[in-house]
């Protein structure tokens, strides 16, 4: 069932995020954003998985491109990347899947969370140009600090792609100010230090962190890392976040159903629906 809408193409980096957050605010809802690795467990099923996320309430998508040496991912996401790499998924394959996703839904914000070597390998300018052409709205490069981000920011904005930055729980006011001024689309707020995964549950940041980001006029703060239950989503929103990102809990469902791809989609639909209901 296609969900292509008649909304015209966006012309400003991160515009789909603003449209989505505005629409959710009118409904007094927050955003639920699932993460999966593109190409996990193989290209055909990956597209079916992403369609299932959209059909069951995802307000935006956070997607990974498989990489052999991740530094911010826990074991669950690392295994997802390995499955995709074993299925011969590369950046070109990911772009083809992204184009299919954008053709399926014209409005949903699509963000990438990945590592700098993937960008360098393609060429910084070409990477952002190709991702923009595929319908990508934002890119977060997990291993690039703000002080090294200028060439990526420039290439992103030149191609109407929003640069996303991370707000760590122990960040200084100066760091939060830079995150707020340089980011667009949304701000990825870490619930805790460390790598992704549900083994360590989310810690809800104090309202002070969200308030500081708001004071600096940061793009919408969205909480990630360790979000795995509807209660986590509710708590994130109660602390002032505009949304919550869940990755490892979603990917774990894929991992648990590798031998039954139909049941995988059923279980994903149930989980996504329950998380969205908490917003």
From TrEMBL:
Its EC number is 4.2.1.20. The keyword Amino-acid biosynthesis applies. Signal peptide: none annotated. Pathway: Amino-acid biosynthesis; L-tryptophan biosynthesis; L-tryptophan from chorismate: step 5/5. Belongs to the TrpA family. Tetramer of two alpha and two beta chains. This is Tryptophan synthase alpha chain. It comes from Thalassotalea fonticola.
């Amino acid at each position: 069932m296609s969900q292509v809408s008649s909304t015209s193409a966006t012309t400003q980096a991160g515009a789909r995020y603003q449209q989505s957050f505005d629409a959710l605010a009118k409904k007094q809802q927050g955003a639920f954003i699932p993460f999966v690795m593109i190409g996990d467990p193989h290209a055909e099923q990956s597209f079916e998985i992403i369609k299932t996320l959209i059909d069951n309430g995802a307000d935006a998508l956070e997607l990974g491109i498989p990489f052999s040496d991740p530094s911010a991912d826990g074991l669950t996401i690392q295994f997802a990347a390995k499955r995709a790499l074993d299925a011969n998924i590369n950046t070109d394959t990911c772009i083809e899947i992204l184009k299919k996703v954008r053709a399926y839904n014209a409005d949903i914000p699509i963000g990438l969370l990945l590592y700098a070597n993937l960008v360098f390998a393609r060429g910084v300018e070409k990477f952002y140009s190709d991702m923009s052409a595929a319908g990508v709205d934002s890119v977060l490069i997990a291993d690039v600090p703000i002080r090294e981000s200028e060439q990526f920011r420039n290439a992103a904005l030149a191609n109407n792609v929003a640069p996303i930055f991370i707000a760590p729980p122990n960040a200084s006011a100066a760091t939060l100010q830079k995150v707020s001024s340089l980011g667009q689309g949304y701000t990825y707020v870490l619930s805790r230090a460390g790598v992704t995964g549900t083994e360590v549950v989310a810690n809800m940041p104090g309202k002070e962190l969200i308030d500081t980001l708001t004071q600096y006029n940061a793009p919408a703060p969205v909480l990630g890392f360790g979000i795995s239950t509807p209660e986590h989503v509710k708590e994130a929103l109660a602390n002032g976040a505009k949304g919550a990102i869940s990755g490892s809990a979603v990917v774990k469902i894929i991992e648990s159903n590798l031998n039954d791809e139909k049941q995988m989609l059923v279980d994903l639909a149930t989980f996504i629906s329950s998380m969205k209901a908490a917003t």
